[in-house]
Amino acid sequence: MHTIMAILNQKGGVGKTTTAVTLASGLARNGYHVLLIDLDTQGNVADSLGLPHSDDLRRLLSPDLRFPLEQVITSSGIDHLDVIRSDKSTTALKQTLAGVTMREYILADVLESSAHDVILLDCAPSADLLHFAALVAADYLLIPTRLDKLAVNGVRDALQTLAALKRISRCQVAGILPTFYERVTLESHEQLIHLAQTFGKLVLPPIPQDTQCRVATRYGKTLWDYAPNARALNGYEQGNRRVGGYLQVLERVKEWL
Amino acid sequence: MNRNTKGLTSFEELPVVDPAVESLLGQGQRRQDEARLPRTERSRKKKERERAEKRKPNRINLDLPVDLKKRLEHLAKKEGVPISQLVAFLLYEPVHQLENRAISLWGYKIA
Fold it and tell me: Which residue, A69, A89, B73, B76, has fewest beta-carbon neighbours within 10 Å?
């Protein structure tokens, strides 16, 4: 029995792919068998893992191809972590799927046979068909958000989309993940208070702003491999403990599995 | 966001939140409060923080008998010195004696 988690925010540039890749590789390092699926036409999951782009997703979902799941899965090069990559062909896939009946269930159906423990869906920053299919397939929704007004509005939009699908989706909001957190700026502080006041315990430990994330992506490596001491992973030092960062978020995610 | 809108940004009115979020918000709030202080007060706080930061490597946590802890607190208050200073003063002599084997832990060791 696997757990499916969608990582989604209709706003772009909030750290969805970094979150998906870091959590997927973190879970894999903890012994979980993880499948990471890229639902974005930009194919950034492949870039982040140093893999070439491929039309894995189109071959899996296109009604005229429908390759079996095991034939489109690629090893990421990291133990226990498999990926299904995406590229520009996903745009054509979405057009093809627009005429298919029961298209919202397409991901849920193909993932039923997966033997992985955890499946992470890295969604595109748009409310498209694959976005809905991800919310129908997922058990949990994780919403990364930058700490600025527009991105926080994106959280509201994601929740509205989920509410609109409640008749066909069993997906629950697992958490809202503040990213690009800067503890010295007033805007970050106030937006974090705003999020905490609105969503309470759903707000996860923030991810500090860290250029190592961008550099790791450039080298096609995960943060765990490229910069294990990065602040985005380990959080801020506070007394004799660390606060925030993906390491702490990973512990929260493991509680949901 | 209106920065003066208390209802939206007041740290005191938070519902139950993740301990990590609460901790970061507490720190952020202290920074904001400090930023509103007059310059002299701000610089005093900064120096205090720097001094505390320098003392950090010398800090240790000890488990003491309750009555001894109370007596130390009482003495420190009476003498008008920080408890760390008092304990350091009281420890120098027995530490010196123990190093020179003038005293021993015989009968005091707990396995």
Answer: B73
Q: Using CA atoms, how far apart are residues B22 and B30, in angstroms rounded to an integer?
A: 12
Question: Using a CB-CB distance cutoff of 8 angstroms, which residues of chain B are in contact with residue A192?
Answer: 21, 24-25, 28
Cβ atoms of A212 and A230 closer than 8 Å? yes
Cross-strand pairs, A208: A181
**Distance (Å, rounded) from C-alpha A228 to C-alpha A255?**
22
Using an 8 Å CB-CB cutoff, list residues of chain A that contact chain B.
Answer: 149, 181, 183-184, 186, 188-194, 196-197, 200-201, 203-206, 235-236, 238, 243-244, 248, 252
Kindly tell me if the per-residue pLDDT of A211 is higher than 90.
yes
Task: Return residues 4-33 of B near A (CB < 8 Å).
Answer: 8-11, 13-18, 20-25, 27-29, 31-32
Nearest-angstrom CA–CA distance, A78 and A229: 19
B chain contacts of residue A149, beta-carbon cutoff 8 Å: 1
Residue A213 in contact with residue A226, Cβ under 8 Å?
no
Query: Which two tokens mark B111?
Result: 């396995």
Mind listing the domains of chain A with CATH numbers? 3-256 (3.40.50.300)
Please give the ipTM for the structure prediction.
0.81
Q: Which of the 8 DSSP states describes residue A144?
A: E
Query: CA angle, B51 as apex, B46 and B53 as ends, to 5°?
Result: 95
* Chain mean pLDDT for chain A: 92
Domains of chain B: 1-59 (no CATH), 60-111 (1.10.1220)
Q: Helices marked H in A100-146 — which ranges?
A: 106-111, 129-137
pLDDT at A44 over 60: yes
